[in-house]
């Protein structure tokens, strides 16, 4: 389970209209009814006059676009779901995903009230593209299997539903490592016990869009977080096999 963080917020881009921050895992973008006592958020750290254009789940790290005015927020929202705006994610998931695919699987509107979700929530269109980048084999038994298998997957959002990538990968039987809501407990425990990993293995690694005012192409690429790099070093020391899927 991801805990709150005191890690400083990295600024990835800033001009007179927008600020793009690299939100660390464990930090809400803004105050949330999920935890009304939380006052330390991305917006409170950077300035209360900022308006979030996109949101990332608390345990997810990556770029968040913050507008400096209501007009700038509206104009960015107008281009946010266009095909020219790309949101690319990186994750580790259970099992070996063998093929590229674009999943078109509607999702119910998700709220934190589970009873509302079950009985009343409407279904919304949801599309995500997945590309398996690597297959990982860890020499650790899990259940009846002598080794633990995972995939590193690149995910591209075409719609923006709550927990969309996490829910789509659960539907595909490839839940994300460290996902305490949609994941699998055996694999989460394996990572916790062997690698001291308690985070959600999902990050937004790239955001590309056409600036609403300058019309220039803005391409934000985020470095690999320190805990991800440390995890890869642990795998290497363990003798894990990491096999590229697509060149």
Description:
By secondary structure, the chain is of the alpha+beta class. The protein has helices spanning 42-46, 70-80, 114-119, 164-171, 185-195, 226-238; strands spanning 10-14, 18-23, 51-52, 62-67, 86-94, 101-104, 107-108, 123-124, 127-138, 148-157, 202-210, 217-221, 241-244. The protein has one domain (10-244): Pseudouridine synthase, CATH 3.30.2350. It is 22% helix and 31% strand. Strands 5, 6, 9, 10, 11, 12 and 13 form a seven-stranded antiparallel beta sheet that branches. The chain is globular and about 55 Å long. It starts with 9 loop residues before the first strand and ends with a strand. The model has no long low-confidence stretch (mean pLDDT 91).
Number of helices: 6
Principal-axes geometry comes out as globular
Coarse structural class: alpha+beta
Q: How many discrete domains?
A: 1
Q: How much of the sequence is in beta strands?
A: 25-35%
CATH topology: Pseudouridine synthase
Distance between the termini: 33 Å
Query: How many strands, which pairing sense, and closed or not: the largest β-sheet?
Result: 7 strands, antiparallel
Q: Helix proportion of residues, in percent?
A: 10-25%
CATH architectural name: 2-Layer Sandwich
Order of helices and strands: EEHEEHEEEHEEEHHEEHE
Query: Runs with pLDDT <50, length 5+?
Result: none
- pLDDT averaged residue by residue: 91
CATH class: Alpha Beta
Nearest-angstrom radius of gyration? 18 Å
